[in-house]
């Protein structure tokens, strides 16, 4: 199956065409026939203020995680090519995007994974004009030890396939899906670069359009949050048989660290 979930912006363009061509009730980007999407991050609940303080909302309609005071880790498909970029606004420190206490900071540089071509390597760093020192960062997994178990996902993306963006941060938990099982759904999975999660049998819980770039994370052995994935793509949202696909952070940890150092940390 071909990948079709890219940035929210592109998604909206595709959705507009789909909607115009077919019907107002057509699910955005429904490509393959299959079971109806799950009920109404999809299947999530509201995150509490301060629960995931490292969560970032990006103005192009993606998520991210605070990697260091000046750097936001997101998806390559959320950004343009590497270079100076002052057009992105990051919103931090709030679950309510309309809160008057939101921290809003502009970007000054984008670093997109070298060799990114829409097939794996879906990570990027956005450098902020001003460091955000009032919020904790989210450490990334440096090896495969945490590529298993149950993960937390969060974002302001659609709460159902084809649905609108959210004002309040939603969260959900999704179980790890091994590469072989995930490849049954997606023949174009890049197993070394991607890690899957979701309820294969039932669907119903998943990230969705607009969650891209946000973190998938879990508790480490010291009970601290650690990032194992970056929201990347999937066939629809929360469909049975189609897990969410995430960039495998441990694969890129060394590259992310050296890129971060080159950006000034
Ligand atoms: N590519 C989407 C975005 O730009 C994220 C899709 C995640 N899909 C999924 N079924 N988990 O927001």
Can you put this structure into words, describing what you see?
- This protein is an alpha+beta fold and 265 residues long.
- The protein is 13% helix and 28% strand.
- The protein contains 3 helices and 14 strands.
- A hairpin with a 2-residue loop joins β3 and β4.
- The chain starts with 7 loop residues before the first helix and ends with a helix.
- The model is unreliable at 1-40 (pLDDT under 50).
Mean pLDDT across every amino acid position: 88
User: What about the largest sheet?
Assistant: 6 strands, antiparallel, barrel
Note the overall shape: globular
List of distinct ligands in this structure: arginine
> Order of helices and strands, N to C?
HEEEEEEEEEEHEEEEH
Q: What are the key terms here?
A:
hydrolase, signal, TRYPSIN_SER, alpha+beta, binds arginine, 3 helices, six-stranded antiparallel beta barrel, single chain, 265 residues, six-stranded antiparallel barrel, globular, disordered N terminus
């Amino acid at each position: 199956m071909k990948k079709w979930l890219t940035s929210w912006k592109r998604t909206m363009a595709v959705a507009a065409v789909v909607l115009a061509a077919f019907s107002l009730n057509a699910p955005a980007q429904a490509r393959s026939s299959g079971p109806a999407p799950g009920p109404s991050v999809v299947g999530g609940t509201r995150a509490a203020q301060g629960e995931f303080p490292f969560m970032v909302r990006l103005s192009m309609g993606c998520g991210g995680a605070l990697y260091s005071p000046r750097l936001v880790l997101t998806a390559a498909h959320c950004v343009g090519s590497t270079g100076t970029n002052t057009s992105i606004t990051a919103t931090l420190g709030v679950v309510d995007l309309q809160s008057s206490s939101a921290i809003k900071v502009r970007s000054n540089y984008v670093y997109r994974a070298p060799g990114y071509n829409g097939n794996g390597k879906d990570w990027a760093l956005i450098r902020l004009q001003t460091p955000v020192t009032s919020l904790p960062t989210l450490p990334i997994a440096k090896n495969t030890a945490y590529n298993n178990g149950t993960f937390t996902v969060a974002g302001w993306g659609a709460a159902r396939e084809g649905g609108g963006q959210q004002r309040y941060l939603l969260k959900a938990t999704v179980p790890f899906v091994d590469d072989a099982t995930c490849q049954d759904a997606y023949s174009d999975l890049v197993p070394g670069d991607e890690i899957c999660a979701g309820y294969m049998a039932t669907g119903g819980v998943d990230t969705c359009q607009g969650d891209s770039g946000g973190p998938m994370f879990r508790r480490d052995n010291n009970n601290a949050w650690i990032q194992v994935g970056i929201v990347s793509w999937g066939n629809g949202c929360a469909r049975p048989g189609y897990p969410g696909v995430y960039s495998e952070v441990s694969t890129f940890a060394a590259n992310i660290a050296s890129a971060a150092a080159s950006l000034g940390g």
